[in-house]
Structure formats: structure tokens, C-alpha cells
Amino acid sequence: MADTKALLTHIDDQLDVARERLFDWLRISSISAQPDHAGDCRRAAEWLKGELAGLGFAASVQETAGGHPVTLGHLPGPSGAPHLLFYGHYDVQPPDPLDLWTSPPFEPILADGPRGKRIVARGAVDDKGQTMLWLEAFRAYRALAGGLPVGVTVLVEGEEEIGSPRLPAFLDAHRKELQADVAVIADTGMWDIATPAITTRLRGSTYVEVKLRVAARDLHSGLFGGSAQNAANILAKALGQLHDEEGRIQVPGFYDSVKPLSRELLASWEALNFDEAAFLGRMGLRTPAGEKGRKALDRLWARPTADITGMWSGYTGAGAKTVIPAEASAKVSFRLVPGQDPSAVVEAFRRFILERLPSEGEASFNAMFKGKGLEIPSDSRWVRAASAALAAEYGRAPILMGSGASIPVVEMLKDTLGLDSLLVGFGLDDDQVHSPNEKFELTCFHRGQRAYVRLLAEIATSR
Amino acid sequence: MADTKALLTHIDDQLDVARERLFDWLRISSISAQPDHAGDCRRAAEWLKGELAGLGFAASVQETAGGHPVTLGHLPGPSGAPHLLFYGHYDVQPPDPLDLWTSPPFEPILADGPRGKRIVARGAVDDKGQTMLWLEAFRAYRALAGGLPVGVTVLVEGEEEIGSPRLPAFLDAHRKELQADVAVIADTGMWDIATPAITTRLRGSTYVEVKLRVAARDLHSGLFGGSAQNAANILAKALGQLHDEEGRIQVPGFYDSVKPLSRELLASWEALNFDEAAFLGRMGLRTPAGEKGRKALDRLWARPTADITGMWSGYTGAGAKTVIPAEASAKVSFRLVPGQDPSAVVEAFRRFILERLPSEGEASFNAMFKGKGLEIPSDSRWVRAASAALAAEYGRAPILMGSGASIPVVEMLKDTLGLDSLLVGFGLDDDQVHSPNEKFELTCFHRGQRAYVRLLAEIATSR
Fold it and tell me: How many domains does chain B have?
């Protein structure tokens, strides 16, 4: 077994090299949502295969059924050691709106920030940067010990940002070679830059695109106004009724199956003294949204939401065009919590919209994600080992926290392979994930690698 | 004085030539709203100047203050004859959405339709095609009589579709050379293809673009959902409250100054037996919009409206992007009736939106048109002459009707030059004005020219 101190020193010494390696990966614009970037997605998968092969993994790029490929790698550990499935994703969100980036999204830079250097690029933290944390930990072991203290399978997919539609079938088809004791995922956040966290609760998600059509064509707002139905008016009215004045979602039955939280859990979150005003203030916000009368972490981690993520209708160019739009569209993101069934939410939303259409109106719906909310056992061997590793690196115990975001793969790994997931991530709230100027603090990139070195050592010796 | 019958025969004989001439004009993509078409607007103005010069007019292209130019022409009539100011516009609406056109918008074609041939192009009827009606009538007089039976000034502008922002100043600066007894405008419609009409009532219009901003940037809908304000949610809610369930506009004070209609006028409209089901059915619609409990022509001609003409926010590309948008925008077209003050409506709408924002929300407003609703005296010498001409051409008296659309120039001509307007147009409800596949029935193009020949003769001999 390698000496942990030597491994950590190696990580420290190699930080610039590791960052340059990450930059190479970030330069590949692997946007899974946009078909014209399919080639870039494949390049990102191949790039990772090369890295794994260089570390001694049996590595391959595997096809999915008509989607972006998956990079797999296998490296056996010492006899009797636990076997871990490390999951990550190489795909990224579209960078729009481009004009709000201060540097090009696929030309990574090391910029100065209030807390030191930061890596700025699309994918800097979500999830290429975080995937590199454990990859660099592997590299340190490889360099100093010739191999890893545990058995490792790597699974890095390219469709996480579009809801991993082909992953369940892929997991099922590769069930045997993906066998492991636990899945490890670096795609979550810290409590703050000095306080590590393990995420034990995740919101689920469903994402519905709705397209209304009420007339055969756009109509002149003077000649037809007062008689013709207007798809934009109708959609605004329907979506405007999604929330009442208390912020409660009005889709019938939406809250019916929400599992209530224990008083203890709510109390432990309250003890964190989360500063919502500061959290919002960093984004230029002041007034909390969501359900009135509920605490911030309850709203963010344990209550379901409905957010319009996109909306378009009629003429959106320069100047004036006096049309009554025949069509109007929106994309709505629902965040779900344990107990809620994504398919039932989609169906209830569909009825909610249809009830608000005139009889000649048509609506089509495209539900893109269906991930349930999840709770992860917090007293397991894996969480205990991770807690020890994080406490050693940061000098304080990690927070067991929730996350408002979805990681549908956690549900898929449980459903298909029976695996629990250990979620240890190093993102921060202000990393601008999915937004312009996404960044990863260099210190998080650095200490995240060190934490994964320690995590491997702890797990190798854990019971 | 030329023989009317010979003039009409000349019109009949020259129909193909006249149509080809119109096609030349339609090929110029004079979209006033789009800065990159400024050169095309100028070309359209120059083209018309050439036509007028060919008819013996003293013609010129005159600059406006930083906008698209105006084509002017002057041709004196016989001594003592009335002097008419013919107004038209050479600019057209943007052709979007392009994919719904069955032929390119600026490549005019003669297509087969259920009522014979039709001219299909952007501007076919609004307003190049209608402007050509009186121009071809002038040409017939020029060919057979060497000149016109009345004095004529031609004023054809290039900013009608963007609200004629520079026309009042232009009219004021050219007040002297624009002196006339009445203005004549062909930019309205018939009652139906067999029944001519004179429009004596017009709705006004104002058009407001609103842009909301609530946060510094777009945010991840999982990490921030339940806490962060969403500009799209807020805009949908605000715009969704523009109308109540009865279709009444909820902007405070909106209806306060609406002048009530006389019982007689409403009764005369009711006698037209307007078939709203058929009117809507042609557009694929069935359920009337607008205020419940009011008759269709009241809603279309005499009641104010609010229609969202464009709306956009967040991610509108392919697939899913799970953002909470920081910004959301909409364009809203208000149609106004006599008594309403456009500036007051804009201000009331501004307050309506601002009241629905969280305290950190910002909204900018850009009001693009401000035209009042108008009533035109229907017992004048000009309306009587036009009635006689239309009755002779169509074998039935014209309908004195209202229009839901705005022609702001009518108000400007009245305010600036003191001129009443005579509105005699040959469009039909299904001409797809401002929409893909705009068309002008060939028979309307033909008989419209004949009607204008008769109109000139009637006016020359009227008292």
C-alpha cells in the first residue's frame, strides 16, 4: 500500500499538469443536446479512453443504442479488496447565451477570482472537472504504488445532460461487467469552500416540452384581435396559473404523495444556519421564490418545484410584428421529491394544460427526464469511510446534505444494478453550473483530488 | 374627359402587364423593421419614383430624418378640379416564419386558388398591390386622356409597418406641397369578394415590448429551484392576468374612456349577419376569443384588445436545458378605440407589469406605435362619390364598415394637414396579411383598378 502522504505530495506536485490535462478535455465541445456536436461527444469519450488506457485500465468506448457512446474501464484491485464503480459524464450543457460568457466556453482559462484561481469553461465542474478528481487520484496511486488499493470499474457516459435516456438499457446489457460493491460519483457540491459534504438526498426531475397550436396560421392582431384565439395568450395564462400567490403548485394532486420529512432532519438542516439572503444575493436576487412559510433548505432540498426553463411564441425579432401567434411553446422543469412519481406528474401537467385550451386547441407534450427523488442510506460503510477521508483532508466533519438537483443515474444504478451510490463532490453554489462562465475553483480541483486519494485509502481499509 | 368605358377596357387589356409591373415591385424585399433591408426599402422607393415619372408626375425620393425615404409625386389636374392626396406604403412586414411559405415571399407568383388566380408574395396586398390599383388607374387616364381629371399628389412612405415614426415630422415639413382636398388610401378591405366597402372606422394601436430581468444570470433549476425568482414564471403570470375569464382586459382603467357606440351603428353591423364561425373556421379556429357577451363585429371593430405577439425566455433550442431564466421578454399589441389615449394605455400596462415583479426585478418598456382609434365622417362628398363608383363597378352599394386594424397615417393626415381620409380598399379577410403566403386575389387587383378609374371620374364631377 502506498504512503498516503507521498500520494498527496504527488497530487500537489502535479497540479498544473493535471489542470492542463483537464483543459484538453474541456476544449472538446461535447454538447449532448445538439445533434451537430455528436462527433465532439465521441471525441470526448475517446479522449477519456486514452487516459484510462494510460493508467493501465482495460478501456473501451462502447456504443449505446443510437446515442452518444460510453467510456468503460476496468482495473482489478488486490484480492479481497472492495470493487468500486466510478461514474461520471463527459457531456455538457449548451453554452447559450454565448454573449454572456467573458471567455469562450470551450477555451478553458485559469482566471483570478475572489478565492484564488478558478478554471472557467463549460464543463469545468459539471462534470469533466469532477470526473478528473478521481482520475488524478488513480494516477497518483499508479505512479507511486503501481496500482490501486481497490478494484475499479469506470463508467463515463455522454447523455447525462439530456436525462441519460439510453443508460438503463446500457447498464442492463453490461450488468455482469459492471458488478461492484458501491457506486462513487463526483457530481455534487460542498457545503462551502471550507466544509466538505456528502450528499444523501437528491431531488428527482422531469422535464416537459409543451407546444400549443390553436389556429392554422399566425393572424393580424388588428384584423383578428377580439375574435381569434392567441396561442401566446393561452400559454401565458395556463403557465401563469402553475403557482398560486403562496408559491404552491396548482397542478391537481401534485403534492399528494410527497413523503413528509422527519422533524429531526429538518432540525439538522436548520442548525446549518443557511444564509438564503447571501445565497440569493450572489445571483442578484433578494426575494425568495417557492412556497411561502417554508425554510430555505426545505424549499431547496425537500420540496418539489415547477420552473419554466424556456418559452417562445410569435415574433421575437427586432421591431414590431403585429401577429396573433398560432403556436406557443414552453419547456418546464419539475423537481421532484421522494414519493412523487414522475410519470404521474407529467400526466397531471398534461391535463392541467389541456383543460386550459379552447376546444380547437392542440397540444403536444414531450417528457424528457423521469427521475424519482432519492434518499441514500447515511450510516453505511461507504459513507463512514468517505466521512473519515473528508474530515482528514478538511479538518472538519462533512455535512450530510440534500441537493435540489437530480442525478438520475443514482436511481438507475440502484434499479438496474442494485448499487447504492456514494456522492462526494466538490462543486460550490456559485459555480454557474449550466450557466455562462461555469467555473471550478482551483482549490476545489486540488483538494478534491487529495480527498479522493484519502477516500481510496479509507475504503481499502474499511469494514 | 376620357370615356369611362374605354378606360375600363384599357384596364382589362393591360391586366397582365400591370401584374408583371407589380411583381417587379414585390421582388424588392423592403422590410422596414429590419435594418439590413434599408437598401431594399430605398430601392422600392426609387422604383416607384420611376413609375410616377413615367406617368408625367414631378416625382422625387425624399429623405426622412434617419429613416426610410418617402416617394412624392405631383401632377396638376384641370383648373378648378379637386386635388387628391393618394397615400400608400412600399414597406412590408417581415416574412417570418419562412418555413410556412409555400413559395418564397419575395418571388411573387400567380397561383391557383378557389376563387381564381391569386398573387402570392409578401406585400401582394399590404400595401404594394393596393397602391398599384390607383397607379394603374392613373396610367389608363394618362394613356387615353393624356392626364388626370383631378389634381393628384402621391405620398408613399416606407415605415408604415413600424408605425410611421417619422411621418408626422415629414408631413409637417412638406405641409405646403401636400395641400389637398382629401386623402385617398387603398389599404383596407372589402366586405367580401363581391361586396365593396368604404371603411369609416378604424382601431388605433399601441405596441409595447417589455423585458424583465430578475437575476444576474440564468440559474440551474435543480440547485436553485424553490428559492430563485424565475423571469419566465413571473412574465407568464403577469401576462396570464391580462385577461379575466370573461376576456376582459385587467389593466386598471383600460376601458374607462372608451366612447360607447350608438345603438344604430351596432344595429347596422348586426344586419350584416357576419358569420364569425366561417370567419374563424377559415383560420382553423372555432371558439371566439375576446370579451364574452359581445357581438363579433363589436369585438373586431369597436372594442379594444391586448394580444401577445411575441414572447421569449430561457432556452429555446433542441432538447433540454434545466435553467431558471434571468430574463424574459414579450411584445404586446393593444388595439384601441376612439376615446382611448395610447400613451395612457402604455403607462397603465407598465404599472400593471411593475406591480407584478419582485422588488429586485427590473423591467424596460419600449412602446412602438401610438395611434388613436378613429371615426371618419361618412356623409361627405368624397364618401358619396366613392359609393357611386363602387356601386357602378360591383352592382351593389358598398358597406360602410369598421376595421379592427390601425392606419395611423389617417390620424396623422388629420392632425398635421387637416385632411380627412377616404378609405377604399380591396383586401379580403383571408389575404393572410402579415402572415405566410400573403395573397391578393387577381379579381380584386383587377376590379380594384377599375373601381379607381370610376372613382376618379366620380370625384371629378362631384359636388
Answer: 2
Q: Is A180 on the interface with B (CB under 8 A)?
A: no
pLDDT tens, residue by residue, A378-432: 778 999 999 999 999 999 989 889 989 878 899 899 989 999 999 999 999 889 9
pLDDT at B1 over 70: no
Which chain B residues are Cβ-neighbours of A321 within 8 angstroms? 33, 93-94, 96, 309-310, 331, 434
Interface of B with A in 67-126 (CB under 8 A): 93-94, 96-97, 100
Q: What percent of chain A has pLDDT over 90?
A: 85
Q: Is the pLDDT of residue A214 over 60?
A: yes
- Does residue B288 lie in a domain region? no
Cite the beta strand spans of B64-165 per DSSP E. Answer: 70-75, 83-89, 109-113, 116-120, 151-157
Alpha helices by DSSP H, listed for A163-314, are: 167-173, 221-224, 231-240, 263-270, 276-281, 296-297
- Half-sphere exposure of residue A190: CA atoms within 13 angstroms, side-chain side: 25
Same domain, B340 and B394: no
Q: pLDDT digits over B319-351, tens only?
A: 999 999 999 999 999 999 989 999 999 999 999
The torsion angles phi and psi of B330, rounded to 5 degrees, stand at -155, 155
- Distance from the B310 Cα atom to the nearest Cα atom in chain A, whole angstroms: 4
**Spatial contact of A199 and A402, defined as CB atoms under 8 Å apart:** yes
| Interface A:B, Cβ pairs < 8 A | 388
**Whether residue B341 is found in the same domain as residue B230:** yes
Residue B257 corresponds to which cell in the numbers above?
A: 374612456
- Looking at every residue in chain B, the average pLDDT score rounds to 95
Q: Which of A371, A389, A410 is the last residue of a domain?
A: A371
Q: How far apart are CA A385 and CA B328, in angstroms?
A: 46
**Residue B174, SS3?**
coil
Predicted confidence at residue B374, as pLDDT, reads 84
Amino acid, res. B426: F
Domain C-terminal end among B371, B395, B411: B371
Question: In the beta sheet, which residues pair with residue A421?
Answer: A183
Chain B residue numbers touching A239 (CB-CB < 8 A): 232-233, 236-237, 240
CB nearest A285 (choices: B237, B282, B360): B360
**Of residues B229, B235, B435, nearest to A218 (C-beta):** B435
Structure-model confidence comparison of residues A463 and A356, the more confident one: A356
Q: Is the pLDDT of residue A142 over 80?
A: yes
User: Does A384 lie in the same domain as A434?
Assistant: yes
Is A173 found in the same domain as A316?
no
Cα–Cα distance for residue pair A313/A324, rounded to 1 Å: 10
Q: What is the CATH number of the domain that holds A340?
A: 3.30.70.360
Least CA distance to A373: which residue of chain B? B222
pLDDT in tens, A160-202: 999 899 999 999 999 999 999 999 999 999 999 999 999 988 8
Distance CA A54, CA A58 (A): 10
Count Cβ neighbours within 10 Å for each residue of A126-151 and write b for 16 or more, e otherwise.
bbbbbbbbbbbbbbbbbeeeebbbbb
Three-state secondary structure call for residue A394: helix
Location of C-alpha cell 414585390: B26
What interface predicted TM-score (ipTM) does this complex get? 0.76
